[in-house]
## 1
Amino acid sequence: MKIIPIANSTIALSECEETEGTVTKQLLPLTRREFLSGTGILFGSIAMGSTLAALAPSPAWALELKTLSTAEGTTLMKMGRVLYPHAKLPDAVYALLAKDLDAGDAKTVAMLKDGIASLNKAAKGNFDNANDAAKLVAVKSIEGTPFFNAVRGKCITSLYDNDMAYAAFGYPGSSWDKGGYITRGFQDLKWLPEPSKEASPEPYMG
Amino acid sequence: MAKFGYDEAVVVIVGSGAGGGTLANELCQKGVKVVVLEAGALQSPATFLNDEWKSFSQLAWLDNRTTSGNWRVAKDFPNLPTWICKTVGGTTTHWAGASLRLEAHEMKAKTTYGNLKGANLQDWPITLKDLEPYYAKAEDKMGVTRTNGIPGLPGNNNFKVLHAGAKKLGYKEVHTGNMAINSVPRHDRGRCMQIGFCFQGCKSGAKWSTLYTELPAAEKTGNIDLRPDSHVTRIEHNDAGKVSGVIYFDKDGKEQRQKARVVCVAGNSIETPRLLLLSASNKFPDGLANSSGQVGRNYMRHLTASIYAAFKEPVHMYRGTTMAGIIRDEAGNNTKRGFVGGYEMETLSLGLPFMAAFLNPGGWGSEFSWWMEQYANLAGMWIVGEDMPRETNRVTLHKDLKDKWGSAIPNVHFDDHDNDLAMRNHAFTAGENVYKAAGAIKTFRTPPYPSTHNLGTCRMGLDAKTSVCNSFGQTHDISNLFISDGSQFTTGGAENPTLTIVTLAIRQADHIAAQMSSKNL
Ligand SMILES: Cc1cc2nc3c(=O)[nH]c(=O)nc-3n(C[C@H](O)[C@H](O)[C@H](O)COP(=O)(O)OP(=O)(O)OC[C@H]3O[C@@H](n4cnc5c(N)ncnc54)[C@H](O)[C@@H]3O)c2cc1C
Ligand code: SF4
């Protein structure tokens, strides 16, 4: 499982509304040094008061990209939402997809950039601004391409193996450190008839 | 731990899993000196991880392999035909613990099922009766529940769902299974804490694994030299055509030659035939023990499939033992169903990360997402049934691709037999019916995962022309070369194979020790 690396960012969201172009340096007082080397940056916020917000040190998150532009990163996030749509998952989780894909070698990066361009083309120029139905059509039209396979495959580990997905879908992860489930409800299901003691003997309680 | 010299002619065992680890201990208890060469590293319950992907990279065999054939695994996991381990203890670290004996008729598959087109059926050269005393020893050693007075495990929520559906349909043999998992403390190991990460290595040590049972017991005798991180690349022979030693790469990547009086190969059913094929020489141009041409053939993987079902209420299937219970009523041979052989239905659960990877490999879109969102309300079962051995389903050496030691990598070819397809369809329907009877709102047919049960690639038989080894796993061609894992299986049966692998290893140890004392080996 991954912990979403949400930085304790001081970016004021109101100052960062553009989705295109480079973020001006003065907006990043704390993390300035890291961001200078990046090619793009993704940012967003997690709704306050949600269960997921409790997992993040700050409601605002920012994520630096090493090789992709902000626009390319955003397109990957939106493609991730078409592939695996989850209203329950905040953008921060889909940003992980962009981050994990961004980590590839030069050949992969070129493939991603080409793929993003073809996705935009399939969406008549601008995938990000297309409506949901048009986005789905565009993604379907590139199904089976190496780009599609790379993004879809990465979704499996990026979207479903992190603390926020665990919380959203009700999977607690590691259990040995809590003593397993022997005293924590492994047989607490009450909406079906109980099996006989021959079929399912009482647990040994020492 | 004992240290034996490279020039000492010991019994060399390749692999430390169910077959190799058990054989090592049994031989050591009889005073035989054994060197175990294990490609994987040494872990322990303390280092096991309750994290599916991290555990997978810690324990699984990830060396490159290729696939071919019409099985769906070749499409979904082209370079991962199997899910098995490279670690001390082998796949007994990952296994779930279901421990069932073969049925008498399954060991006479040819006689029972007759001539099936496209299947290479044979009767085993031994009967269930021959194996019974050894099965009893294996069950005691492994602490199998509902044998030797050991109580069954308590069923978890996933079992309650399976049980409720099965009972509604009138299935009779439904219980928490015969598991090599301590329901009560036994043999210095604690009882199951219902941790729920059985596939990631049992952190409480309740589940039998050679890692912390057979191998430490062997160590106490002073007769074992266990060498982790030691990958065997070749078995050598002398002019007389007897095996004389093995070549391996040690943990520093240095090539070593260990002299051997006897070599036992227990690398699981892909690596075992691969090693025999890689050891081809002028004298044995088709590979060792391959005069029959059967090395690598008749590869079986059990008919597998899974069914997941969504309910209105929570199940939390991940809580507690992964394989928490069984329905055995479909295991018999009832050809009225449209196929020969039978299958077991056993509960199964995956964590969220593996559910995403295995529910529907390649799947995407809103339906897939819907299933993931039902995670807390899902119940799951796995189908394990007898698949047909076919000569053309086989492990071969890749023509071009090599591994880091310069050895040709294996290709695993598998085509489903019509009988397999008919059985899988029947099992899917039966499994869905179980869940519908328990009130499922939706059910899903999950295709086979990479193979966890790998069998048959060096089959045993009476005739040296049509089989690789005899009923003791001793190869027909080379008397001091043994097959000591599931590769020996003549046919697969419907039952999870490990209890039988352990049983055969105990029997083989008796044979080797006796042959050694009478100087036949
Ligand atoms: C997730 C999962 C669940 C399972 N559940 C069950 C179950 O409930 N019941 C059941 O009966 N079975 C189960 N199995 C199957 C069971 O684990 C295997 O049947 C059993 O472990 C096979 O024993 P083996 O000795 O043939 O091979 P393994 O246990 O796989 O051991 C082979 C060892 O040989 C080593 N090796 C291979 N090649 C070389 C080489 N060239 N040099 C040195 N070392 C080498 C490997 O690293 C490995 O450690 C399960 C398997 C998996 C993956
Ligand atoms: S459920 Fe039991 S057997 Fe499985 S890992 Fe946990 S303690 Fe071990």
## 2
Amino acid sequence: MIDLNLAIDRPPEGPAPELELRHLDTLWLQVTGTLCNLACRHCFISCGPKNESHPFMELEEVRRAVETAAAMGVKEFYFTGGEPFMHPQIREMIALTLEHGPLSILTNGVLIDEELAAWLAETFHNARYNFDVRVSLDGTTPEENDAIRGRHTFEKILGGAVRLHEAGLNPVFTVTTCHAELAESAGRQRFFDLLAERGITRPRLKFLAPFKIGREERRGGAYEDFERLSEGMLDEEARASLQCSSCRMVTAKGVYPCPILIEEEGARMGDTLDDAMGPIKLDHPACYTCFVEGVTCRT
Amino acid sequence: MSDVRRFAVFGGVYNNFLSLEATLNDARALGCEAIYCLGDMGGFGPQPDRVFPLLRDVPDLFVMQGNYDHSIGNRLEDCACGYTDPRDNYYAQISYDYTLANTADAHKDWLRDLPTEFRHTWAGQRVLMAHGSPRQVNEFLWESMCPDAFLEHLLKSYEADVLFVTHTGIPWKRELEGGRQVINVGAIGRPANNGRTSVDYALVEVDAQGVRVDFREVEYDHEALAALMREEELPEPFVETILTGWWTTCLEVMPARERAAGVY
Ligand code: SF4
Ligand code: SF4
Ligand SMILES: [Fe+2]
């Protein structure tokens, strides 16, 4: 392995790269804004019970964005927050979106009781398009997970996931690799073992690198100066693999390039999707993580 | 002499020379004037070199490069499937290494130089064939993941009325407005996670009314294939798939919807 840090510890020279939107494949919707029932220490948008910087989206806003994107030939939808299941109209939002294409909903799992799990499973079975629920879990023990997601959350998250599984859904588990060894194959195996113990024998897992912004900046440290992108660093393949070459994020406060930058100064692109079809500048340090880690939204 | 023209389209051979032979026999017996293979010759099955005599230098057969063929043809280190499940990864690598080691150099060169799309005009319709999708060789087009409007967008951008793809291993077709259609022909090398040991290809009929596509089920000696896979010491879960019709590995890339139709 080459240690990049030895070679480059100064900011790269030249302007930040520009990136065109190839086609709107993925529409993200920040349905519950920055409001969350947890306040995880690695949350890159500092969500929590009191963060109202992005409020809930209204049902009609969601409908408008979904229909606009559908008319553009979008391929898939993602709901996130905050915690999407805090929204009183989340079920209507899920139903209307699934009319137009496949949907993944990102949740911390805590609010998934038996009744909701049954409704989600029924929706999954009746929908024309695929419907996925992604549950975030950040460790294979209470100590590991709770240090990041908050006290007693390990059992609450697993409880929600097990209820989904018992209702007939196979949720995707997303793991943020704050504990670096979790991304290694032995670390992965520990997840498979844990989930098998809980009766989830064919689990689906996705590992994500943390973004050093929001609350994570205070937890894991900020970006270094050299962690920036410049024009020469990106070839065609690297450009195509960045999710922002094919996604946009709609919130109650307007449209952003991606889910990561919604609280970052200058990232807002406009009021509606039509205003946000132009190129973006990859001048943010979080863009460096996307490039180095190959972050994508795909399951 | 009827004025119906027939064609066959298939993909995903996965070293299964027995189902390949059965598919070609079936298509020829039905009078197909041309047969199109949309790629992925290797992986999964036994004795990779046995598919090439059936595929190479055959006048009625047109063969395209899939992502697997690109990797094998260019002697890359893996199939770049990028599984995160250690078990999927382990098995995928075994079959890739096996295929790479047992494919003759001349066949690798042939795979490396294959075309990556076909275009025709049938009954006035613009027909496009690609491996994964017209825009990306390893893009998965699963039925539950493709909104109508997205497919319309692909057809429009790539100037086609009828689109054939493979790469996922599970067949489906969809009719869109104005008689346009998208067909995923599935794979002939491995059953489609439906509990059948048979495989499917797309049989196309073209006449003055237009282009009609139906899936055609092909039985082959799957027990002989399974026996040979065991002789070659290929992973037992692969053998199980051949014998039961259910996928046992690589389920990670399959959407929950398609996966729920299977047993794993
Ligand atoms: S990481 Fe997710 S669950 Fe945790 S505070 Fe942020 S939005 Fe909420
Ligand atoms: S943070 Fe990542 S997804 Fe967002 S604009 Fe930068 S590179 Fe694109
Ligand atoms: Fe393929």
